[in-house]
Amino acid sequence: MNEKKDRYEASFANLGLRRVAIQDHFIKSYQKLLSEGVWCIVVIGYLATDEKDGSPWIIESLKPIQVSNVNLEEYKQLRKAFTKAEWVDAIMQSIGLSPEEFTFRTKLLQLSRLVPFAENNYSLK
């Protein structure tokens, strides 16, 4: 909430955008947006402005896709219900690859390409 302008504003760490105006109805529909770390599918528009320190970016549509609170213990318990092969297949499916098209070794090679996204300063050179 920007108290000076009496409006909600969003920031996008991945895009380097701050102070992007967000309409009240998004906040009312998705209250978890008020906490940090919520991932969304967002359509952002550009509207030129002469306002000093104003952002020309506007949020046209928004759909949250990440649960902001995770019960890690429950996750660990449910993970135990999967075999290693089933778990690898689930991860492959979640990144948009059909596990049936790969051998177990090539599945692991594909998944190893994700390491730089999870580990800082890791290079696959």
What can you see in these coordinates?
The radius of gyration is 20 Å and the shape is elongated. It folds into 2 domains: 8-64, no CATH class; 72-118, no CATH class. The protein contains 5 helices and 4 strands, in the order ββαββαααα. The protein has 125 residues and is an alpha+beta fold. The model has no long low-confidence stretch (mean pLDDT 84). The protein starts with 7 loop residues before the first strand and ends in a 7-residue tail after the last helix. A two-stranded antiparallel sheet has the order 1-2. Strands 3-4 form a two-stranded antiparallel ribbon.
Radius of gyration: 20 Å
Which runs of at least 5 residues are low in confidence (pLDDT < 50)? none
The tally of structural domains comes to 2
Indicate the mean pLDDT: 84
Helix and strand pattern:
EEHEEHHHH
- Distance linking N and C termini: 44 Å
Strand order of the largest sheet: 1-2
The count of strands amounts to 4
Shape from CA axes?
A: elongated
What structural class should be given to the helix and strand makeup?
Answer: alpha+beta
- What profile does the largest beta sheet have? 2 strands, antiparallel
Helix content: 25-40%
Q: Determine the strand fraction and express it as a percent band.
A: 15-25%
> What's the tally of helices?
5
